[in-house]
Design goal:
Its EC number is 1.1.1.37. This is Malate dehydrogenase. The active site is at residue 186. Residues 15-153 form the Lactate/malate dehydrogenase N-terminal domain. The chain is an alpha/beta fold. It has 2 domains: 10-153, Rossmann fold; 156-318, Alpha-Beta Complex (L-2-Hydroxyisocaproate Dehydrogenase, Chain A, domain 2), CATH 3.90.110. 42% of the residues lie in helices and 19% in strands. Strands 3-2-1-4-5-6 form a 6-stranded parallel sheet, sandwiched between helices. It binds 1,4-dihydronicotinamide adenine dinucleotide and oxaloacetate ion (OAA). 1,4-dihydronicotinamide adenine dinucleotide is lined by residues 19-25, 44-46, 49, 88-93, 102, 106, 109, 112-113, 129-131, 133, 154-155, 158, 186, 234-237, 240.
Length: 327
């Protein structure tokens, strides 16, 4: 019998490489495989870690009912030909730290990882997750020299998910009906937009008093630190992994979902040469289009302050990377 009938020549299966097999990276690998979105390559510098997680996830697949291949590796050669590369490599913060305290450590890691990954997957779309998010996305863009629409950072989906959760908890309504929009940098200066946040189309400004909204906005701004304070040894990873999965899905399936994304700005919102969270349609080309919302002068000013703080971080990272000849 001709065995090729049963084992046809392998065809190109969609592949997502995740650089960094820690809490965020490994949870994302699980989400992508269990959503049957793509095969996954999980890479880390620690020997045995990605291999062990990949084997464990493959064995879960036999129960979860997917046939996705998950490869664990320490070798970038295994990431070759990826459609999407996600960078979660780097240190998380611990209580008392600001995300910007991670610049010196994580700039080197992200620059190296991005260089290695782009060399093997020149056609991939990159999603950066490592903190401080908007600064690290700029670094990765600089070293890969990718067209700006093919590289972006994940933060806005997570920050909006937090705002949505707090709104649903406050009103005691289904979170499925809540849609919220958080723009700006992934830090205390982020810009939640109550005017664009609704419960099934009804603006939250009509559903709760201004003081309540202010309290939820503050909690959203400190949402990451709240979890770091509880976990003590690192940050959140379930909600971040879900948020990255949503972006990966919109790209791979060309769904063109409108998602707050850290994107390269070239005049949008009056800002240039900076990555910042803005609403973007994500499709097979990456950032297909940036939506310019009508902002009030206060909201615009808040976005400008975010841009300034990201630029300060970029200058600090650039100096470090130049001194190491990584830029
Ligand atoms: N953008 C966002 O919204 C979020 C960002 N983060 C950030 O993501 C990063 C990762 O967080 P976790 O997964 O919780 O940390 P983790 O410590 O669990 O995992 C990080 C992994 O990176 C690996 N790593 C370090 N250097 C590497 C290199 N040169 N190449 C490959 N792998 C390397 C480590 O061995 C470790 O396994 C942190 O910077 C964290 O702050 C976390 C949550 C949300
Ligand atoms: O807070 C952190 O360090 C991790 C993170 O970015 C988040 O959960 O928003």
């Amino acid at each position: 019998m001709d065995s090729s009938l049963f084992f046809p020549p392998s065809c190109h299966a969609t592949r997502v490489s995740i650089i960094g097999a820690g809490k965020g990276g490994s949870t994302l690998a699980q989400r992508i495989a269990e959503a049957n979105l793509a095969n996954v390559v999980l890479l880390d510098v620690v020997e045995g870690l990605p291999q062990g997680i990949a084997l464990d996830l493959m064995q879960a697949g036999s129960v979860e009912g997917h046939d996705r291949e998950i490869i664990g590796t320490n070798d970038y050669a295994d990431t070759a030909g990826s459609d999407v590369v996600v960078i979660t490599a780097g240190r998380p913060r611990t209580p008392g730290m600001d995300r910007s305290d991670l610049i010196a450590t994580n700039a080197k890691i992200v620059a190296t990882a991005a260089k290695e990954a782009i060399a093997r997957s020149p056609n991939a779309t990159f999603i950066i997750v490592t903190n401080p998010l908007d600064v690290m996305t700029y670094i990765a863009w600089q070293v890969t020299q990718l067209p700006s629409y093919r590289i972006m950072g994940m933060a806005g989906v997570l920050d909006s998910a937090r705002f949505q959760t707090f709104i649903a908890m406050e009103l005691n309504v289904s979170v499925a009906d809540v849609h919220a929009m958080v723009l700006g940098s992934h830090g205390d200066l982020m810009v939640p937009l109550p005017r664009y946040s609704t419960v099934n189309g009804v603006p939250i400004t009509e559903l709760m008093p201004a003081e309540t909204i202010d309290r939820l906005v503050k909690r959203t701004r400190h949402g990451g630190a709240e979890i770091v304070g509880l976990l003590k040894t690192g940050g959140s990873y379930y909600a971040p992994a879900s948020s990255i999965r949503m972006m990966v899905e919109s790209i791979l399936l060309n769904r063109c979902r409108l998602l707050p994304t850290s994107a390269y700005l070239q005049g949008e919102y009056g800002l240039e040469d900076v990555f910042l969270g803005v609403p973007c349609w994500l499709g097979c080309r990456g950032v297909e289009r940036i939506l310019e919302l009508n902002l009030t002068p206060d909201e615009r000013d808040a976005l400008g302050r975010c841009a300034e703080s990201v630029r300060r971080g970029i200058r600090e990272a650039d100096e470090i990377l130049k001194s190491l000849s990584l830029l």
